[in-house]
Amino acid sequence: MSVTAVLHSEWIKIRSVRASFGSLLAVFAATLAITLLVFSTVGRAEADGAEDPVFGAFYAINFAQIAAIAFGVTAVSSEYAGGALRISLSAVPHRGLFYAAKTAIVATAALVVGLATAFTTFFTGQALLGQFAIDLGEPGALRACVGGGIYLALMALFAAGLTFLLRSAVAVLSLLIPFILVVSFVIGGIAEGAAAYLPDRAGQQVLHQDPAGGLDPWTGLAVTALWAGFALLAGWLAVQRRDA
What are the tens digits of pLDDT across the range 12-65? Predict the structure, then answer.
C-alpha cells in the first residue's frame, strides 16, 4: 500500500471507531460547554481579580486534556481488540509505515481539533466577560491559543505511545488520569522544582501570561514533547519486538 493509502485507512479507523472519534469530538464539545458554564456564571467575578487573565481564559483546557488523552488511548487500543492488529499488519506488513501513519493521523487530528478548541474557548470565554475581556493582542494570548492546541496534541501522542507499550486502554487511563488529576499536584506540593518537569505542568506553562517555575512557555512545551517522544519510542520498540 502507498503511504497515502495507509494514512487514509488510519483516518477511516478513527472515524469508524465510536470511542476514538467520540473522544476527539469531546475535546472540543466538552471544553466549549465548560467554558460557557463557567464564564456565564462566575466568569466576571473571577476575571475582575485574576492575576493571570490569559491562564484564566483557558480553565477548560484542564478538561480538554482528559479527552485528548482518551482520544490517544482509544485510537490505538482499538488495534488490540479482537485481533485487529493482525489484520492491520497483514494489510501493511511494514511495521514502521503502520506505526508512523497511525501516530501521524493521531497527531494531525488532535492538533486540528486542539487548535480549534483553544481559539474557540478563548473567544467564547472573552465574549462573556464584557468589560473584563481581553483580546488576542493581550501579551501571551495568541501564544496561549497556539500553544494550547499543540499541548493537547502532545498529550494525545503521549497517551498513544503508552498504549502501544502497554496494549491496554484501561491500564493507560488508570495510570494517566489519576496522574494528571492527583499525583501531579501531590508532587507539586512536595517538590515544586521537580513537578515543573512533569508533562502536564511543563506543557501548561504556555497558557500563562507570565509563567513561573523556571520554565518559559516554549521550553515547557518542549519538555512535554520529550515525554511524548519517549512514550512513542517505547511504543515503537514494543510494536517491533512483540507478536501481533
Answer: 999 998 999 999 999 999 999 998 888 777 655 555 555 788 888 898 998 999
Q: Which of 122, 120, 143 lies closest to 134 in space, CA to CA?
A: 122
The packing angle between helices 169-178 and 141-166, to 10°, is 140
- On the question of pLDDT at 156 being above 70, the answer is yes
Summarised one tens digit per residue, pLDDT across range 92-151 is 888 999 999 999 999 999 999 999 999 999 999 888 887 778 889 899 999 999 999 999
- Mean pLDDT of the 160-186 span: 88
Contact 210, 52 (CB under 8 A): yes
Which residue stretches of 128-140 are H helix? Answer: none
Please state the length of the chain.
244
Task: Determine the Cα–Cα distance for residues 126 and 134; give it in Å rounded to an integer.
Answer: 6
Q: Are 75 and 160 in contact (CB under 8 A)?
A: yes
Question: Quick count: other Cβ atoms within 10 Å of Cβ 8?
Answer: 14
Per the CB < 8 A criterion, the answer to whether 57 and 141 are in contact is yes
* Buried-state track 87-99, b at ≥16 Cβ within 10 A, e below 16: ebbeebeeeeebb
